[in-house]
Amino acid sequence: MTTTAHASRVHDLAHPADSTPTDAAITLSGVRRSYTTASRLGLSGRRVATESYEAVRGIDLTVRRGELFALLGTNGAGKTSTVELIEGLAKPSAGEIRVLGHDPVSERARVRHRTGVVLQNSGFPSTLTVDEMARMWHGTLTRPLPVDDMLAAVDLADRATVETSKLSGGERRRLDVALALMADPEVLLLDEPTTGLDPESRRTIWGLITALVERGSAVLLTTHYLEEAEQLADRIAIMHEGVIAREGTLADIVADAPSRITFTRPEGLDLGALEVPGARVDASGQPSTGTRLSGQRNNGTHAGQRAPGTVLIETPTLQDTLARVLAWAGDEPLGSLNARAASLEQVFLAIADQPLADDHA
């Protein structure tokens, strides 16, 4: 695949956004969303809600033009509920949402043609070919990019005459993205857009999204691939039980998290003789209860797991502590030695393990 060439081609076709990159494209203020989970028949004969569940619990959020904002969270954290509110599919139970300065529900006609959306799941008429589907969608748009160029950009040009029902899952996902980008949107909402894609296809989609951001569009991305957020996002928010638990750049989010050193303890060395000031040493070798996101690489352990007999050292000064560990070990080999700075995965798992604070209840 020619990711760079295709991204550049779409970049050249589109016209620039009409606002500066610092403008807020999406704003949420005190937004809440509740669902009724049970009801009863009232005296008037109308059904009355008796139970409700609050999926979004008062969040503030801003996504600027020329920015890719990643919204992360475990299943049930409220990400999809939040994205649906921004899309205008429902009104918030409380709070205010503005997309390009407009209410996405009451002023939908002023927002929809300027917005692109890739849902978690979408459907195409099974008897239409890829080309027919793309041209039908092209006819609904205000300022569409050329069909042939968009299919080429996602490497579907040679599948143009194939019925959509015969596409693979990855090909269908690439068609989803092509249709969303065809509108040359000022705001693009991506709900797990690369799920099921092979690494090469994922890089192609990344290139197209990056080109759109560079032209001044605002992109809101939800993903289960933390690597995707690390590589693409200008800013990140982590949702937990309906609230924003952490927000900022990647550097902001990991700033307070400790670096980690792990190794298998040699039988001939006394761990008590290891001096690492300011660090926490855990020689229990027991795994923690971190929640791994679907789609992450599985190398047998992850940021919240350790093999039995493994020593974990958490430290704010990685280089100094590692030097002390190596000096302590001397010529004795340290099995499975690993030293890494704080990661997004580490912070995510720590947040996922925490109960909801009382002031958000």
Key attributes of the depicted protein:
4-stranded antiparallel β-sheet, disordered N terminus, alpha/beta, 13 strands, 361 residues, 11 helices
What does this structure look like?
The chain is an alpha/beta fold and 361 residues long. 29% of the residues lie in helices and 27% in strands. The protein has helices at residues 3-13, 79-87, 108-111, 130-138, 147-153, 169-182, 199-214, 226-232, 250-254, 318-329, 344-352; strands at 24-41, 47-64, 67-73, 94-99, 115-118, 187-191, 218-222, 235-240, 243-248, 259-264, 280-282, 310-315, 335-340. The strands form 3 sheets. It has a 6-stranded mixed β-sheet with strand order 5-6-7-3-8-9, with helices on both faces. β1 (24-41) and β2 (47-64) form a beta hairpin. Mean pLDDT is 85; it is low at 1-21 and 287-303.
